[in-house]
Amino acid sequence: MKLAFIFAHPDDETFSTGGTIAKYSSMSHIVSTLCLSSTEDRKTEYLDATKKLGVQESKILDYNNVADFETKIKKEVINFILEFRPEIIVTHLAEDYHIDHRTAYHIVKEAVEWAAHETQYDNSHLVSKLYVTETTILIPNPHILVDISAYYSIKENAIKCYSTQLSKGGEGFYIKFHKHRTLMRGTQASTEYAEAFLEVPLKKNSPFFKIKHSEL
To answer: What is the pTM of this model?
Structure first.
């Protein structure tokens, strides 16, 4: 199975889904990450962190933010989907308070639809599932809780790669925040550590789906 994790900034992939990335990478699935913006110092941190998570292919774009370059980034995300051809994509929540995160969600959602458009692309590709996850806000009622207990230490080591960010919010804030959030999700999942996801329904009445009917 191919999984793509697409986020706005370096560190979003690790903070949001580092345990899940590490888990699926270790299970011989093909995992790729795409970061939509960067600076030179954070690009190095991103490549180091995703390497620790076991990612086979990490890509990062050179835009200094997401919100101001939405149209250009959308084309790059479409091309990424057409080239990598993932079954599953994970990105930010639509309701996240960070404008770049909200914009990233809309970019990915549209890119998923356009990449499946056979009249636009000879090599069109339909993603099977689209998930969103927690970055800066919590999901009230998750659809899925992924057990990352065996991979939490890998996630924490990857978080530590982001030295330019770790002083924000006070000493140890990011480590404590993500540890306690995954502990809370672990309690909900009857395990030690977990990460939470919502599945975003893909509209079956759109022209991008060959088979539009299904059974209950």
So the answer is: 0.94
